[in-house]
């Protein structure tokens, strides 16, 4: 029976399925709705043309969830052809048109010619839920940042002194701005009322924040153009930011609950700098640390390993990588940056790299690469990280 390689160009409402045989000839091409009945029909039709070797998709997010679930339930091998790989492979075939049908053929031809394309494994329940929660949290953080930038701009148009007097990244100033936005309103509220409001919100430095905001309000007696409308918007934005922060805190609690059930979470979380959020994101972006067979592969995917540029008699020439998983690199970078401040062992390694002539960025990247080896060893041995006990000096 002939062998088939099947590529699927993923869409929101419809996918395009194409199948090629062992000689690269197109034997099947069809647009199919993202619906269980339609997808099952296509799977049955494809099987009449030969024995499918594997399927491949170009998207692994929720758009392809239904198709992947149906394939995995039938124990079908599925590979992932990234957009970058498909783009470069398309140049190997005749024609410059870009259609869903052609993209599906390119995906099918890619897995036929390249056995190194990664295989997708079924995501377990914990990872699927962590993926949703971390993605939702990232959206909330983006909303908060965008709203905060706009609020800062509007508040400067009301009172520059008030905008400078407090840290708007803190909860306390946002609580005050949700109630009073103009210098006159804050002066009228006074230190006592503002302090009482902040104490009801369990703010520790309530008196200091109240005094700082009232003091800044007293520095301005004039009313700036557009202040009335800006004050209304600032109040609404401050209320919105407080609500977003509550939602972020709720999502953080859900992430922590899911991490408590994952066997690798205590191991990864024990490494200095790896808090609950970074641990969850690392598990999500590495499919539970199952996508790599060595620490070198993980480091290369995260862009922590140099790329060789040898040619002819030139050897040992390396350059920084240009294609890598940027979010994964950010996770490992942030963890290394935090560890360099709180962990003596990581700090000593960082200082050694600085002494070798590396700048701050290079030293942190080197530390992140070293920590990949440590993390890999911890997971392999199923051990948690133990901080070295400082030596006790005995007086002579």
UniProtKB/TrEMBL annotation:
Species of provenance: Micromonospora marina
Domain Transposase IS116/IS110/IS902 C-terminal: 267-351
Lineage of source species: Bacteria, Bacillati, Actinomycetota, Actinomycetes, Micromonosporales
Signal sequence, renumbered to the chain: none
Ranges for domain Transposase IS110-like N-terminal: 6-160
Domain of life: Bacteria
An individual GO BP term: DNA transposition
Family annotation (InterPro entries): Transp_IS110-like_N (IPR002525), Transpos_IS110 (IPR047650), Transposase_20 (IPR003346)
UniProt-recorded Gene Ontology molecular function terms: DNA binding; transposase activity
Protein's UniProt name: Transposase
Pfam families associated with the record: DEDD_Tnp_IS110 (PF01548), Transposase_20 (PF02371)
């Amino acid at each position: 029976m002939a062998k088939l390689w099947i590529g699927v160009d993923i869409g929101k409402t419809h996918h395009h399925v194409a199948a090629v045989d062992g000689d690269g000839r197109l034997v099947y091409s069809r647009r199919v709705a993202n619906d269980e009945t339609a997808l099952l029909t296509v799977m049955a039709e494809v099987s009449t043309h030969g024995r499918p070797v594997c399927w491949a998709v170009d998207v692994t997010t929720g758009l392809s969830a239904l198709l992947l679930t149906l394939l995995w339930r039938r124990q079908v091998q599925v590979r992932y052809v990234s957009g970058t790989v498909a783009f470069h492979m398309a140049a190997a075939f005749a024609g410059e048109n870009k259609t869903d049908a052609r993209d599906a053929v390119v995906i099918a031809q890619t897995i036929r010619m390249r056995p190194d394309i990664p295989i997708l494994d079924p995501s377990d329940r914990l990872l699927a839920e962590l993926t949703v929660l971390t993605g939702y949290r990232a959206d909330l953080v983006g909303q908060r940042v965008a709203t905060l930038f706009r609020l800062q701009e509007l508040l400067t148009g009301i009172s520059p002194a008030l905008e400078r007097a407090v840290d708007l990244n803190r909860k306390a100033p946002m609580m005050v701005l949700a109630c009073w936005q103009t210098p006159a309103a804050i002066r009228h509220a006074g230190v006592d009322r503002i302090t009482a409001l902040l104490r009801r919100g369990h703010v520790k430095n309530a008196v200091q924040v109240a005094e700082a905001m009232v003091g800044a309000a007293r520095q301005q007696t004039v009313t700036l153009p557009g202040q009335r409308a800006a004050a209304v918007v600032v109040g609404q934005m401050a209320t919105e930011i407080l609500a977003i922060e509550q939602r972020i805190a709720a999502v953080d609690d859900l992430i922590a609950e899911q991490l408590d059930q994952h066997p690798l979470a205590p191991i990864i979380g024990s490494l200095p700098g790896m808090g609950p959020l970074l641990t969850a994101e690392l598990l999500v972006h590495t499919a539970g640390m199952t996508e790599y067979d060595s620490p070198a592969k993980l480091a290369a995917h995260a862009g922590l390993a140099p790329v060789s540029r040898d040619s002819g008699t030139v050897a040992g020439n390396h350059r920084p990588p240009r294609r890598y998983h940027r979010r994964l690199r950010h996770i490992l970078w942030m963890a290394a940056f935090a560890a360099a401040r709180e962990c003596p062992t990581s700090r000593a390694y960082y200082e050694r790299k600085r002494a070798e002539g590396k700048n701050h960025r290079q030293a942190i990247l080197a530390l992140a690469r070293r920590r990949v080896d440590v993390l890999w060893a911890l997971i392999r041995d199923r051990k948690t990280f133990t901080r070295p006990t400082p030596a006790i000096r005995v007086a002579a």
